[in-house]
Every structure is written in structure tokens, then in C-alpha cells.
Amino acid sequence: MNAAFDILPVTLLTGFLGSGKSTVLADVLQGEHAQDTAVLVNEFGDVGLDHLLIREVDARTVLLDNGCVCCSIRGELKEALATLFSQRIRGEVPPFSRVIVETTGLAMPAPIIATLLADPAIRNHYTLHTVVTVVDAVNAFEQQRQYPEWLAQVTAADHLLLTKSDLVEADRVPALFDTLRMLNPAAPVSIRAPDDHDALRTTLFTAGHAETLLQRIGSTHKARLSAGYAGYAGYAGYAGYAGSDRLAHRAALRADQPANATPAIKAFCIEIAAPIDWQIFTIWFTLLLNRHGDKILRVKGVLSIAGASKPVVLHGVRHLVHPVLHLDRWPDPRRDSRIVFITEDIEQAEIEASYRRFCEHLEEQTQ
Amino acid sequence: MCGMCGLLGGGNHWSNATLPVEGANARRQRLLQAAVANRLLSLFRLQLDDFHGQSFVLSSPTGARQIVDDFSQVWQAAEAMLGRPLDPLELFVE
Predict the structure, then answer these.
(1) pTM for this structure?
(2) CA-based nearest residue in chain B for residue A121
(3) Most buried of A124, A141, A172, A288, CB within 10 angstroms?
(4) Chain B contact probe: residue of A126, A280, A287 with most B CBs at under 10 A
């Protein structure tokens, strides 16, 4: 088929400042495996990438109509991706079949995901393959307490990659695993092995399988509430973000929050035994995200739809929901719907009760 | 948004997914979706209509009409017309 109609997978590589993103990128791009990979980075690092196709992405943000920062389009990323695709068609750059976008350490992933999902030019040529978040084992707990960007990066991840685990005491790693699993139960956590580049490539270039997803969001992860989670001081003062000033950004994130505020981050799995009415579900879920999308950090689930024999996979980050995926078959014998929510200050019981009321009310009127 | 722009509406929104159910087609599912939304919106005297299979038109009893791309915009427009939020965590609570 003509290259102009290709849809290329994009891997989003994120992680806080100093977590080791560039080193991971340099390792994964070693050898011939990287010949068909284009890389977009926010900042040039000093890793040896000069033989590769790299574009620098300048900071610029364009708000969508609704003015929500987390759904904003990153204009510079859009232009970089569009230009790259045009050059590929014209043969002005070496041919590539996938793209890695490395974010800055202070990036919120949602605007980048919004760019890939919402922009008409980009979404027809690129598809978000996976989000890999690099977590620094040495500084993770401190970053968790102090930086809302860290939490946004962890909760948006499809895969969490732990680096520098050899630099911390042995008992710290299991505690960090527990914390990461609590914050994002739908994402597998792996430890970065310095010489295992194949495993790294698998992590970055392989989308999550439905079997893995189902295993992770199954009953073992049900209702893992983090009620005692002592988070950072503030996450809700979001509307003050005015652009590229990152310090102002972080200050805005903390605005209007008392110093001892500790928003409760909760991760839980709701299970719905009866097949889901797709129309009612979409009405309810779009309404939920419209009003509480800024507090629903992540949604990931497998749905059993009434009238359909095959399951549907749902992915969302804040207000953004990926195009739903249709699986060819159920990966396990269970046929109920399971949806993982990672929320801020919203209880599992509230969401379950809300969905139940919508079903009862909207179904009743059909009778 | 003008009427012509409505033809370039939110066809890509996740809620427009055509599901592999018996007798499914995109237009039928869209009309069913609008019908279900109207069960809720009618409580507030609002009405939603499909617009060429690409957008929706939300109407109020005072004659206000707005073309919206997809369901994320339907609720924003409805809240603007009503002048108050529609919170699914509080709706239908007895």
C-alpha cells in the first residue's frame, strides 16, 4: 500500500527528571534493531544518538476548545509528527516504521496523548502503541511526595520500568513495587536490566496483550484502596497552567491547596457481571469524564457488551479515551466486565452506585 | 460552529465505536445512543438529535440550539444551557 496511508505505532517514553529515559533510549536503539525507528525528544541529551533520526520538539501548547489543560494539543509535537510523516513519504528521511517520543522529565503525559488521539492529521497516521514510564528507584518516594508530574507519569503508564534498583537497599525495591502496583495496578512493573536490550525493546515496542491486562485487572487487584496514601501537596489547582513556564506550572498545580493537603489516590477494579448496554455505558462514562475527568487519572478495562460475543478493551487517561479495541476472543474463561479506575478523591462505591443508578433509570424507561 | 463545520464533526470519538453486535450499523447505533441520551436530557427539557451521522444538535425549550461534535461536548453544552453542572455521581439519587 502507498506509504501515505500507513499508520505508524508511537511509543511514549516518559519519566521524571534524572530517571534514566535517555539512557534507556540509547540502549534500546543500539544495533540494527533501531534502523526503522524515528525518535522525537524534547531536549537533546548527550547520549550517542547521532546515527539516528532525531527531531527536537520545542515547547508550545495549544488549548482545545474546552480549555482543559490535560486535553490540550501540543502544537510542536503535532507539527513534528506531521513533518516527519511528510518527509517519510517524500523519501527525505530514512524509512522508519515506528516512532519513540521521549518527553521531558516534567511533562504531563495527557496533553501528548491528546495530541495523538485528538488531532485529525496525526491520528490518521499514528497510533499510540504504549506508554512506558521510567521510575528512578533512588528518588521515587521523594518525587512521589513532591511532584505531581511524577504521579501523572506513573498513572498514565502501560508499563513501568524501574531503574537504579541496584543503588538502593534491598528492602526498598519491594516497597516501591507495592507502591507502583497500588498506584497503577493495570501496568506491569519490571526492573531495568543493564545489559538486556532485547527485554527493553520488547517493553518499548510490544503493546500490552489482553491476557496480561486481564490478569492484572482481575480479582487479585480488586479494591486495592490506598486510603492512607500520603501524596504530594496538591494536584487540583490545574487551571492555572499558562504555558511553557514549568515552574509556574508546578506552582499552579499546587495553588489553592493547603500545605498539608493529601489527596487520596485510589486504585480499584469494578466488576460488572451483567453484559453492558453500550449506549447507556457511553452516556454514563462520557458524563462521568466530563464532570470528573480531572480526578479520574486512569481507566483500563475489558467490557462484555450485550449482544456481542467478543470483548471490548477500554483505555483512558483523564478526559481522554482511546478508540476502543475489539478483541477476537476472550483471553480467559470469565465473561464479566472488569474496569480498573485510578482516581483522586472518588470512591469505588460512588462510581459503582452511579453506574447502577444510570442502568436502572435508563433501562426502566424502555419498558 | 457553523452548519457546514458540523459535517466534519466528531466521527472519531471513542463513543462512536460500532460494536460487533447483531444487526449493528453505525447510524443505527448512533440513533439509539441519542435516544438513550434523551431519556436523561428530557428530565431537563433538553433534546438531542443526530446531525448527518457526524455531529449532534442540542436544543433547549427556549429555542437555543447548538451543534456539538461528540458526547464529551454534548454535556458541556447541556451544562451551559442549564447553567448548572450535571454530575453523574449525584444524578438519580433518591
Answers:
(1) 0.75
(2) B12
(3) A288
(4) A287
